[in-house]
Structure formats: structure tokens, C-alpha cells
Specification:
Strand 4 and strand 5 form a beta hairpin. It contains twelve helices and 19 strands. 29% of the residues lie in helices and 27% in strands. The chain has 435 residues and is an alpha+beta fold. The relative contact order is 0.11. Strands 13, 14, 15, 16, 17, 18 and 19 form a seven-stranded antiparallel sheet that branches. It has a five-stranded mixed sheet with strand order 2-12-11-3-10. A five-stranded mixed sheet has the order 5-4-7-8-9. Helix 1 runs antiparallel to helix 2. The chain folds into three domains: 57 residues, Helix hairpin bin (Helix Hairpins, Orthogonal Bundle); 241 residues, D-amino Acid Aminotransferase, Chain A, domain 1 (2-Layer Sandwich); 118 residues, Beta Barrel (OB fold (Dihydrolipoamide Acetyltransferase, E2P)), CATH 2.40.50. The longest helix has 22 residues.
């Protein structure tokens, strides 16, 4: 082996180790500047000696030339969706069906939060990432290999040893809440359209024809299962996931094993109580049989496995229509635009009004009367309009402007240079401010 080959191999190993510590373990051991120096050295070495480029080189994460269209990629094992449960009785029915089909009372369920992102299937051969595909219709997805290579929590080469010749790892690409907020702040500063939610941002980032755009987004891949295997991995789902973690993947740290219907519902309520504190968006929890031979025994319907179900939370976001926009005056005199909406259930509550915060936000989101909008209600937060579905905008929709006079006392409404809020100048003459 030449000096250049040895150095390139050393750099690849060192950079991937730093990637793993930073993006998977969240325990970086070098500064960004030190990491950048190592990556630049490898890039220069490969530029001078192209024969040194390998399938697992970290330089392949920076993006490939743009595609003109995504190539369809057929799943060797269908990547099906899950049936849904919306109530405790639905869960009871699921548990009853499982016990009747297996004809026994002792059952182990693997349970975990249902991440709200884009499902992805990663195919590894001899430990190297060969291809990546979206779920698509379950039979055929879109090939997004170049984009998957840019996601630093996806190993280009499996860690450790003991993996089969072929292993297909399936999971979810997500944007953590904090990363989503930073991404939208950056887009706002650049006057770009904001993403409505982390799921849309993750899906849009993966489905980019230019992988350099994907590389610029702080995406994270969480493994939740496997597809095709050349040889079996383990006896249980939990043991299988432990192997994936050993091979360099992130698995959900909230995953557990429970033994009965009461355990399923207790887990659902626990995760639901802590939902807002989790670093990623979820829309429910997943229950699946832990024993893989039980999964194989029950099999699939044409659209979903019989051995798993998604217990969904009440939706935190829904689409509805803006019927009118009014100026609401508060006790401090702040005038807030409020959207009156066609009533819709959001987060288990009927919502017919949502704050638009201030005139700047109305203009930034371009909310108009007649628009179809996405409304969010998280926890006990006042419902808000987070995005407009521009494709459904009616021709008559006109931009909304703050009225010049208070709708309560007819005093002048002013905005001071140091504030984003408009205020009624009526003071205690305004009935809204005397409350």
C-alpha cells in the first residue's frame, strides 16, 4: 500500500469516526475547524489521486451532480404502511386479534414513537451503502441514493462486523425541532418561503434533484426496522435494533418492550404527556410484535402487516379555510390580527379562530380571506396559522391590512418604530383596555 493510500484510508476512518460521534452519539471530540481540515485534506488527496476514491469516502456526502428525474426503484420486500388505531378500543381489538391468531396469552410488544418524517429504505451489500429509496406506493419508490449519502447519520459503510452480505435498513428521515427552527430562520433571513412543518421540510429535502441542497439541510435518519436480509439477524425486533445501533445507526431512545394491552396504553399516554418535550415531531406510537417468528407467522395483508399498528395522536395540524380576518384589541392596547376559520378539530379541540400575531406575520405568510391554511395547535398553545396552501387560493383573495382605527373605540391605531405590534391609542377610553 502506497503512502497516499494509507493516508486516505486513515483520513476516511478518522472522519467517519468523528461523524459518528457528532451525528449519532452527539459527543463530538474535535472542533469544527479541525474536522474541516481533515475533510479538506482528503478532498485534495482524492482530487490529486482519483483512484483513491471509495464507495464509503466521506467526500461523497457533499453532493453529486443534479439529476433530471428520479429513477423508480422496486422494493424487493414491499415497504407497506401501518394500519391505524385511534382509540383504546381499537388497541384492544388489535391485541385480541394477535392473541387469537397466535393462540396464546403471553405476548411481547416492541413499542416506540412514530416519527413524523419521510420513510427511507437503505440497501447495504458487503457493508457498503448501495442504494436508497423512498417508500413510494409501497412496491416502488424513488431512488435517492445520492441524497441519502449526504445525511451524516447514515453510515456509508456499516460499523463493526457480523452484518450479512445483504441488509436493508428501513427508517425515517426527520428534522429535529431545533434544526427546523434554525432552518426556517435562515430561510426567512434570505426571504425564502418557509417550511410549514418539520415533516414537509424533511420530505422536501430528501426529494431534491440536486443532492447539494439535501447536503445543506440538517437531516437525521432514525432506523426502525429491516427489509431484505440475506441471513436472519436476531430472534426479536429489540435485538435486531441493537445490532443496527452497533453497526452505526441511530435508533429511537424511547423504544420499549411491554407485555399486554395495559402496557400499550400506558406507553401511549406516557409518550403523549411528554410529546412536546421530545426533540422530534411524532404523530403517534407504533406497536409491533417483538418476536420475529411471530411476525412471520402472522404475515401481511395487501396493504399492511398484521403484526403491527400505529396508535395515532389527535392531529396537531389540520387544513381549513379563512372566513374573515379581524383586528382584536387586548388589555394593553395591542391590536392582533385574528383569523376566523371554518371550524376544524385540531389536537382534540374544535378550532374556529387562530392568531396571526401581527401585520408583519400576516405579510410574511401572506394570509388572505378565502385562503386554505394549515392550522397548528401544540399542547395548550393558542392555535396559529402556520402556512397557506397557495395552490388553493381563490381569485378574489386580497392582501389584508391593519385598519387605521380601533374597531372598539375608533381611536387611531399606531405602530411605533421599535415594535412589531400595532396599538390602539384610545387608552382607558377604549373598552377593550378597561377590562
Amino acid at each position: 500500500m502506497s503512502t497516499h493510500q494509507r493516508r486516505a484510508a486513515q483520513l476516511r476512518q478518522e472522519i467517519e469516526a468523528h461523524n459518528y460521534r457528532y451525528y449519532v452519539l452527539d459527543e463530538p471530540t474535535v472542533s469544527d475547524a479541525q474536522y474541516d481540515r481533515l475533510l479538506r485534506e482528503l478532498q485534495q488527496l482524492e482530487a490529486d489521486h482519483p483512484e483513491l476514491i471509495t464507495l464509503d469516502s466521506p467526500t461523497r456526502r457533499v453532493g453529486a451532480p443534479p439529476l433530471k428525474v428520479f429513477r423508480p426503484l422496486r422494493h424487493t420486500i414491499p415497504m407497506l404502511s401501518l394500519d391505524n388505531a385511534f382509540s383504546a378500543s381499537d388497541v384492544a381489538d388489535f391485541d385480541k386479534r394477535i392473541r387469537e391468531r397466535l393462540q396464546r396469552d403471553t405476548i411481547e410488544y416492541a413499542v416506540e414513537p412514530k416519527l413524523d418524517g419521510l420513510s427511507l429504505s437503505l440497501r447495504y451489500e458487503r457493508g457498503f451503502l448501495i442504494s436508497a429509496a423512498t417508500r413510494g406506493d409501497g412496491e416502488t419508490g424513488e431512488e435517492v441514493t445520492a441524497n441519502a449519502r449526504t445525511i451524516k447519520s447514515i453510515p456509508l459503510r456499516l460499523h463493526g462486523a457480523g452484518w450479512p452480505e445483504i441488509v436493508e435498513v428501513r427508517g425515517e428521515v426527520v428534522l429535529r425541532k431545533a434544526d427546523f427552527e434554525r432552518l426556517n430562520q435562515s430561510r426567512h433571513a434570505q426571504e425564502e418561503k418557509l417550511f410549514a412543518n418539520p415533516r414537509n421540510a424533511a420530505a422536501g429535502s430528501v426529494r431534491q434533484l440536486d443532492s447539494k441542497i439535501t447536503a445543506s439541510r440538517p437531516l437525521t435518519f432514525f432506523a426502525w426496522g429491516v427489509g431484505e436480509l440475506s441471513t436472519p439477524l436476531a430472534a426479536t425486533h429489540a435485538a435486531q435494533m441493537a445490532l443496527l445501533v452497533a453497526w452505526g445507526f441511530i435508533a429511537n431512545g424511547e423504544a420499549r418492550v411491554v407485555h399486554d394491552q395495559a402496557g400499550l396504553l400506558a406507553y401511549y399516554h406516557d409518550i403523549g404527556m411528554r410529546r412536546q418535550q421530545l426533540p422530534f415531531e411524532i404523530d403517534g406510537v407504533v406497536y409491533k410484535l417483538n418476536a420475529l417468528h411471530d411476525q412471520e407467522r402472522l404475515g401481511f395483508t395487501s396493504r399492511a402487516p398484521r403484526w403491527a399498528i400505529a396508535h395515532k395522536f389527535p392531529a396537531q395540524e389540520e387544513m381549513t379555510q379563512v372566513e374573515s380576518i379581524e383586528a382584536s384589541v387586548g388589555r394593553t392596547g395591542v391590536v392582533t390580527p385574528v383569523a376566523n376559520l371554518t371550524a376544524v378539530a385540531v389536537g382534540g379541540v374544535i378550532v374556529n379562530r387562530a392568531t396571526l400575531h401581527n401585520q408583519d406575520e400576516v405579510e410574511r405568510k401572506d394570509v388572505r380571506v378565502g385562503d386554505t391554511v394549515i392550522v397548528r395547535r401544540a399542547g395548550d398553545v393558542i392555535p396559529e396559522v402556520v402556512a397557506v396552501v397557495i395552490e388553493r387560493r381563490p381569485a378574489y383573495a386580497q392582501p389584508w391590512k391593519m385598519p387605521p382605527r380601533c374597531p372598539v373605540c375608533d381611536a387611531e391605531i399606531q405602530r411605533f418604530d421599535t415594535e412589531s405590534a400595532h396599538r390602539c391609542t384610545g387608552g382607558l377610553y377604549c373598552a377593550a383596555q378597561r377590562m
